[in-house]
Amino acid sequence: MTMLSHAKARINNRLARLVGTTPFRLLNQKPMVSFTFDDVPKTAVTVGAEILKEYSSLGTFYVAGSLLDSPSPLWTAASGDDIVALHRDGHEIGCHTFSHRQTCDLDAAAMAAEIERNGRFLRSLDDTIRIENFAYPFGVAAVLRKSQLGTMFRSSRGIFPGVNSGKVDLQFLYAIPLISGQIDCDAIDRTYDEALRCNGWVVFYGHDVAASPSPYGCSPQLLRHALEAASRRNIQALTMSQALSSAGA
Ligand SMILES: [Zn+2]
């Protein structure tokens, strides 16, 4: 990203939190947690999904079709077969833009084309994949694209840190990094304790799950801690779709 594009993204993200919001009151009966993985690195599937399974939990994996099977300096990417395997195991497949371009760089037609292409790509992998939820590439929301996303998705997740509770903007859901350099076990515990106090919905986001993760991923131990600490507090891990249904959305 250029400096100008960075500045545009930052301003868009700030505005998107404040402007064009349609508040929705979450009606969940008890606190919830969702584990989400973006892009999708191979280890999110081979390690992350396996650890979720140990806790009988399901995750949400936000796919940008162009990134699958493509080389990355950060990690080995998942394949189309990996995504199909996740889907058949009951995990939710979510939507990024196909090209992974940030939404504030797209006009309405380009945005629609990105989503159409990603949806078509995912249905070509398995035509029973249903896309209901979106995550902003780079976590950057676009003030002008939010209402458009609202017509296509039940929710859009950013990376603005916070626990979702009470009145939320479904097209600007907060999320907490499950990223080894950004959160530790104590901070995860404090996040859950806050969720218990406010009957909140914690949405974690991350990428790879590896012993030596990228700067955007986490270790298997951190993911295990997040699952263990949730289960100790009786906080149920749900996919984004399941959590939204529990919240009456
Ligand atoms: Zn991404």
UniProtKB/TrEMBL annotation:
InterPro entries: Glyco_hydro/deAcase_b/a-brl (IPR011330), NODB_dom (IPR002509), Polysacch_Deacetylase (IPR051398). One of its GO terms (molecular function) is hydrolase activity, acting on carbon-nitrogen (but not peptide) bonds. The keyword Signal applies. Keywords: Signal. Residues 31-249 form the NodB homology domain. It comes from the Bacteria. GO terms for biological process: carbohydrate metabolic process. Is involved in generating a small heat-stable compound (Nod), an acylated oligomer of N-acetylglucosamine, that stimulates mitosis in various plant protoplasts. This is Chitooligosaccharide deacetylase. The lineage of its organism: Bacteria, Pseudomonadati, Pseudomonadota, Alphaproteobacteria, Hyphomicrobiales.
